[in-house]
């Protein structure tokens, strides 16, 4: 399992098949975005995803949390129903996160996104 802060010029790559969570924390504006979580099917339903989400939330307990819109596939829906998202599924990046292009442009254009400010 690993945390990997999002670096726009080099998105995280899952090299070894271990569970991975990408997040962006801005300590200046106290905003946090859970960008992506990926668990290979063979590792699912063992608690790894829940541990990663809880650990991410613990890194920014007083931050304003949002996530990117949740995939509509049944597996994702079931995971988030069990785990609970740390914030609404509408990214609300601060100006620093916008400048760093933490949220992909196509995700900012989705309904409900608060990328404009």
Describe this structure as you would to a colleague.
- The structure is a single chain.
- By secondary structure, the chain is an alpha/beta fold.
- The protein has a single domain (2-108), classed as Aminopeptidase (3-Layer(aba) Sandwich).
- Helices cover 26% and strands 20% of the residues.
- It has 4 helices and 4 strands; from the N terminus they run E-E-E-H-E-H-H-H.
- The protein has helices at 48-59, 74-83, 95-99, 105-108; strands at residues 2-5, 20-26, 31-38, 64-67.
- It has a 4-stranded mixed sheet, with helices on one face.
- Strand 3, helix 1 and strand 4 form a beta-alpha-beta unit.
- It starts with a strand and ends in a 9-residue tail after the last helix.
- Residues 7-14 have low confidence and may be disordered.
Keywords:
single chain, 117 residues, alpha/beta, Aminopeptidase, 4 strands, 26% helix
- How would you characterize the largest beta sheet? 4 strands, mixed
- What string, H for helix and E for strand, traces the elements in order? EEEHEHHH
Compute the separation of the termini in Å.
32 Å
* Level-1 CATH class name: Alpha Beta
What's the gist of this structure?
By secondary structure, the chain is an alpha/beta fold.
Write the layout of secondary structure elements.
Elements (H helix, E strand, L loop, with lengths): L1 E4 L14 E7 L4 E8 L9 H12 L4 E4 L6 H10 L11 H5 L5 H4 L9
């Amino acid at each position: 399992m690993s945390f990997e802060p999002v670096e726009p010029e080099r998105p995280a790559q899952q090299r070894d098949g271990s569970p991975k969570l990408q997040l962006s924390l801005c300590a200046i504006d106290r905003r946090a975005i859970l960008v992506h979580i990926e668990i290979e099917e063979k590792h699912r339903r063992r608690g790894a995803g829940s541990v990663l989400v809880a650990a991410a939330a613990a890194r920014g307990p007083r931050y304003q949390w949002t996530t990117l819109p949740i995939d509509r596939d049944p597996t994702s829906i079931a995971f988030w129903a069990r785990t609970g998202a740390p914030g609404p599924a509408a990214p609300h990046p601060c100006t620093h996160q916008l400048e760093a292009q933490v949220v992909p442009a196509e995700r900012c254009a989705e309904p409900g996104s608060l990328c404009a400010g």
